[in-house]
Amino acid sequence: MEPDVRIVIAEDDPLLREGLALLLRAEGLDVVATAGTADEVLAAIDRHRPDVAILDVRMPPSHTDEGIRAAVEARRRRPDLAVLVLSAYVEQSFASELLAGGAGGLGYLLKERVGRVEEFLTALERVVDGGTAIDPEVVAQLFTRTRQDTRLERLSPRERDVLALMAEGLGNTAVAERLFVTEGAVHKHIRSIFGKLELSPADRVDRRVAAVLHYLEDARRRS
């Protein structure tokens, strides 16, 4: 990741907030502001115009969905802003709301992922580069809750494996390496997945994001 990437952090726990800032600065990244509330982070985004905002889902005053609402509002104001949301546990409805626009540059990770520094930094870089990064645990629970979806039943076991890794934000090369297959095989599986999920190349929404959104929306309806 380029060292001149500008970052704003929103987290109401001061220890976690400062610890995250120290971690990123130690990696040579430019943390331009930290905030403890949704209002503060929106003001910081307007003032500093960062490349990426890292936000906690739950912040004052109600500790419910302030972070998600701030992320959605920030993207409304700055569509080019990359956003990485952190959550203490899987909250699929929030992930679905965040990703509803279908654009890239978005991530949703569990906070425990921050402790796995390389994984966290890789996810952050992916989001900054315009990709998506969804926590593997969200994906795992998603598949568990959506078994009866008819479109999901169309997928082969290998296609499910490929889609799960796509949902984490991995590109074709990384998927191939993880599954020990060729990139050509991954490309064929992805084309088949798009077909079985009825995702047309003419759709305005990125088909990779749309595939993940399909499962997130179905999981929210069933939860």
Regions with pLDDT < 50 over 5+ consecutive residues? none
Strand tally, please? 6
Gyration radius (Cα, Å) is: 17 Å
What is the CATH first-level class name of the largest domain? Alpha Beta
How would you characterize the largest beta sheet?
6 strands, parallel
The succession of helices and strands, N to C, reads: EHEHEHEHEHEHHHHHH
Largest sheet strand order? 2-1-3-4-5-6
CATH superfamily of the largest domain: Response regulator
State mean pLDDT (0 to 100 scale). Answer: 82
Q: What is the 3D shape?
A: globular
Q: Distance between termini?
A: 37 Å
Number of domains: 2
Helix content: 40-55%
Number of helices: 11
Task: Return the CATH topology of the largest domain.
Answer: Rossmann fold
CATH architecture of the largest domain: 3-Layer(aba) Sandwich
Task: Write a structural description.
The chain folds into 2 domains: 6-135, Rossmann fold; 139-222, Arc Repressor Mutant, subunit A. It contains 11 helices and 6 strands. Helix 2 packs parallel to helix 3, helix 4 (92-99) runs antiparallel to helix 11 (207-222) and helix 8 packs across helix 10 (183-196). A 6-stranded parallel β-sheet has the order 2-1-3-4-5-6, with helices on both faces. It has helices at 14-26, 38-48, 66-77, 92-99, 117-128, 136-145, 150-153, 157-167, 172-179, 183-196, 207-222; strands at 6-10, 30-35, 52-56, 82-87, 106-110, 132-134. The longest helix is centred in the last third of the chain and has 16 residues, at 207-222. It is of the alpha/beta class and 223 residues long. Strand 5 (106-110), helix 5 (117-128) and strand 6 (132-134) form a beta-alpha-beta unit.
